[in-house]
Amino acid sequence: MPGSEAAATTQPEDDERAADLPLRRGFYVSNDTACGEASNATLALLHAAGLNSAREDCHFDTVVPLGGARYRTTEHCAVIGTGDMIGYATDWEVLSDRDFRRTLASGAVIRMRRCEQSSLPEAWRMIDLDAAINREGVTPSPR
Q1: Which residue among 1, 13, 35, 139 is buried most deeply as judged by most CB within 10 Å?
Q2: How many whole angstroms separate alpha carbon 120 and alpha carbon 34?
Q3: Neighbouring C-beta atoms of residue 22, cutoff 10 Å
Q4: 73: β partners
Q5: Is the CB of residue 95 less than 8 Å from the CB of residue 22?
Q6: pLDDT in tens, 90-141
Q7: Are 49 and 16 in contact, with CB atoms under 8 Å apart?
Q8: What is the 8-class DSSP label of residue 54?
C-alpha cells in the first residue's frame, strides 16, 4: 500500500490499544454489505489490541485523539499467509460506538459498522468471540 512503511516487530507495551477508540469490540462489516452476506473481503474483527482482517492482523502501537471523534493510529500488521510485517498510520472517524470510517495513508476510505455475531454467515457464528476479542489463541479465518 502506498505510504506504508516497515514496522518494528516488537509488540506494543499496552496490549489494550483498541480500548482507546470509543468503539465496541467485535465484528465489523463494510457499510455496503449486509451482515448476513459478509465475507473475508468485507469483514474485520476489532479486538483488544487492534483490527484483524482477512489479509492482515494489525495491532495498534498508538492511538492519538485528534479532536472530536477523530483519531490517528499507528499500527503494525502481520500479513496473513507470509507473516511479513507492515506499518501504517491510519485516520479514524468514530461515527458512533458501532460505526467508523478509516482513511488509509493511500487515501482509500473504508466505512464499517458493527454486526452482531448471530447475524453473520455461519462460519463466523462458530468463532468464540470472547476469546477472539481478548486474543486467547489464534482466531481461525473462515474460508
Answers
A1: 35
A2: 9
A3: 12
A4: 63, 90
A5: no
A6: 999 999 999 999 999 899 999 999 999 999 999 999 999 999 998 765 433 3
A7: yes
A8: S
